[in-house]
């Protein structure tokens, strides 16, 4: 069979390459930067797995339930069950690969993270993503030495090559950023190129290298988006040059406390309003409360994260990297001084529509990691992003290999007439900033029809500008898709809060939002969330998961009624 082309070399891409190599399937690992510079290395807090190391009787069923509840029941329940059931085995495998997870008295430990009542987040100080990526890189190098993986760093994704006859993906065009040559790579394509933080330059915690333009291109080629309106604002970020500095949720997991000065006195508002989970409520809830508190005239507009009560041992053994970052970029010591924080764009729960096997709407194209939609619904739990990427990359690899063996080699000379125009494939920084400001105005923590429609008109105005490049037009269309999805969802759910529709509407909108572009026309529709399989059905666990029954209505129960924590 043809090689499988993997676009993106973060955790999802590395996981896909490793899984393909174990199946003796060759792959190309294509990325604009080396894996060491992937956005995955910025992940700090940890990776979730119900290993029950802390004596709390944790289980994957409870992890599944917390994930579905935190996502306000928009995530694919069968995909989530597969991921949470696989999680303990995946973390044990990471240990075998040398990931130095935190230990006490020789035993691995886990900590609390938002939206979860059990300590199930495995971590390596506050640099979990970095050490995890390093371990996966070493494993990929073994596959590279065996001739099963070839890494093509410094190559940009250009576009998918699609059959005019049936729309099937025949391969992918990429461009060597050193020499400028365009290359056609035949075969299935697994997209692992992250979210679309590039729509919001300077306003997100993501790397500036993640522009979102690859996702915009795939959308323009007919791939369907799912749930793009659900944008996670991380509660604790701070402005630095070019982006937002993430103050990891791990700080609150270790005892950090949010407060505002109300009439000159410290008010620990999360602890007062949500006594059970307090500062570890789901991120959408905390961000929304911070938004409201900061606008209270009695509170002075600023909110602080108080970490001064953390012990010297905690700073030394669990959060040394976080302290160093704050000292370097904010010029203050969090062990001595509360840190001013505010919500910043952090993660995109939606992305390319993909089924349980990570197949997108385009045959031969698969998606994993932040660019896919399955696992997080309306709000992602902290600690589930690395897990979703690690698990999802493996599942996408299995689907790509299985489908290719059935389909066989497509055999095509597509691309001989393709011509790359660098002039049309650039987005000027000024244009990106203007678009980002328009989108941020409409897609804030609290939204309404007036703001969304105003932003939509602003995007249309940019599209009408003379001299706009094709890449700029595609980025505008991606922004328009997010705005249209947010306008169509006339309810409040998770990270999508409408002040003009403040209630959750399960009857009308407990559904997946789909946005498609056909012949230049954008359409928004809704699809039912996949039905949960009963306990008697088995999960096909070729990815190393024991064949246990998928969560049933009794074991992975939806505790919905009157649940304020779910938004």
Explain what you see.
With 567 residues, this protein is α+β, with helices and mostly antiparallel strands. The protein has helices at 11-22, 60-70, 77-96, 128-145, 213-220, 250-253, 269-273, 283-294, 312-317, 320-330, 385-407, 429-442, 449-463, 470-488, 506-509; strands at residues 4-7, 27-30, 47-48, 103-104, 107-108, 110-111, 121-122, 149-152, 155-162, 169-176, 182-186, 189-191, 225-226, 231-240, 243-246, 257-262, 265-267, 303-306, 339-348, 351-352, 365-367, 511-518, 521-528. Among the domains are: 235-345, Flavocytochrome C3, Chain A, domain 1, CATH 3.90.700; 422-513, Fumarate reductase/succinate dehydrogenase flavoprotein-like, C-terminal domain (Methane Monooxygenase Hydroxylase, Chain G, domain 1, Up-down Bundle), CATH 1.20.58. It has 15 helices and 23 strands. The strands form six sheets. A six-stranded antiparallel beta sheet has the order 15-14-19-18-16-17. Helix 12 runs parallel beside helix 14 (470-488). The longest helix has 23 residues, at 385-407. The protein is globular, with a radius of gyration of 22 Å.
Describe the protein's topology.
Blueprint lengths: L3 E4 L3 H12 L4 E4 L16 E2 L11 H11 L6 H20 L6 E2 L2 E2 L1 E2 L9 E2 L5 H18 L3 E4 L2 E8 L6 E8 L5 E5 L2 E3 L21 H8 L4 E2 L4 E10 L2 E4 L3 H4 L3 E6 L2 E3 L1 H5 L9 H12 L8 E4 L5 H6 L2 H11 L8 E10 L2 E2 L12 E3 L17 H23 L21 H14 L6 H15 L6 H19 L17 H4 L1 E8 L2 E8 L39
Parallel strand pairs: 1-2, 1-12, 2-8, 12-21
Antiparallel strand pairs: 3-7, 4-5, 6-7, 9-10, 10-11, 13-20, 13-22, 14-15, 14-19, 16-17, 16-18, 18-19, 22-23
Helix pairs in contact: 1-4, 1-11, 2-3, 3-11, 5-14, 12-13, 12-14, 13-14
């Amino acid at each position: 069979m043809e090689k499988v082309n993997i676009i993106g070399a973060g955790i999802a891409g590395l996981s896909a390459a490793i899984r393909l190599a174990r199946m003796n399937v060759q792959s190309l690992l294509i990325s604009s930067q080396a894996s060491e510079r992937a956005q995955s290395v910025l992940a700090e807090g940890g990776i979730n797995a119900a290993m029950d190391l802390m004596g709390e009787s944790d289980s994957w069923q409870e992890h599944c339930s917390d994930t579905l509840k935190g996502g306000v029941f928009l995530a694919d329940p069968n995909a989530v069950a597969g991921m949470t059931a696989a999680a303990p085995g995946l973390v044990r495998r990471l240990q075998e690969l040398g990931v130095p997870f935190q230990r006490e008295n020789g035993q691995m430990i886990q900590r609390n993270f938002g939206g979860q009542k059990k300590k199930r987040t495995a971590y390596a100080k506050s640099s979990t993503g970095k050490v995890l990526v390093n371990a996966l890189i070493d494993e990929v190098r073994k596959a590279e030495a065996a001739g099963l993986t070839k890494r093509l760093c410094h190559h940009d994704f250009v576009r998918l090559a699609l059959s005019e006859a049936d729309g099937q993906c025949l391969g992918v065009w990429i461009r060597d950023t050193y020499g400028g040559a365009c290359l056609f790579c035949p075969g299935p394509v697994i997209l692992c190129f992250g979210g679309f933080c590039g729509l919001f330059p300077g306003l997100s915690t993501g790397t500036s290298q993640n522009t979102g333009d690859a996702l915009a291109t795939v959308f323009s080629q007919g791939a369907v988006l799912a749930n793009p309106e659900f944008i996670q604002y991380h509660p604790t970020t701070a402005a630095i040059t070019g982006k937002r500095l993430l103050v990891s949720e791990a700080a609150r997991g270790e005892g950090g406390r949010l407060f505002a000065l109300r009439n000159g006195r410290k008010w620990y508002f999360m602890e007062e309003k949500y006594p059970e989970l307090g500062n570890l409520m789901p991120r959408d809830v905390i961000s929304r409360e911070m938004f409201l508190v900061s606008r209270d005239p009695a509170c002075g507009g600023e909110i602080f994260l108080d970490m001064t009560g953390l012990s010297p041992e905690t700073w030394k053994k669990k959060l040394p990297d976080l302290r160093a970052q704050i000292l370097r970029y904010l010029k203050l010591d969090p062990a001595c001084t509360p840190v001013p924080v505010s919500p910043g764009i952090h993660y995109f729960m939606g992305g390319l529509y993909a089924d349980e096997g990570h197949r997108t709407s385009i045959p031969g194209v698969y998606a994993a990691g932040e660019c896919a939609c399955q696992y997080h619904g309306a709000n992602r739990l902290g600690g589930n992003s690395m897990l979703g990427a690690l698990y999802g990359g493996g599942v996408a690899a299995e689907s790509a290999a299985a489908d290719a063996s059935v389909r066989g080699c497509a055999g095509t000379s597509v691309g001989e007439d393709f011509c790359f125009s660098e002039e049309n494939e650039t987005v000027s920084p000024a244009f990106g900033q203007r678009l980002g400001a328009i989108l941020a105005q409409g897609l804030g923590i609290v939204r309404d029809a007036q703001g969304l429609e105003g932003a939509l008109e602003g995007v249309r105005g940019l599209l009408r500008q003379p001299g706009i490049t094709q890449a700029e037009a595609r980025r505008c269309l991606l922004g328009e898709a997010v705005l249209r999805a947010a306008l169509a969802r006339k309810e409040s759910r998770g990270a999508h809060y409408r002040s003009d529709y403040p209630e959750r509407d399960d009857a009308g909108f407990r559904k997946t939002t789909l946005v498609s572009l056909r012949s230049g026309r954008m359409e928004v529709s809704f699809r039912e969330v996949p039905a949960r399989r009963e306990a008697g059905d088995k999960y096909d666990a070729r990815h190393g998961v024991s064949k246990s029954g998928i969560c049933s209505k009794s074991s992975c129960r939806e505790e919905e009624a009157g649940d304020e924590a779910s938004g």
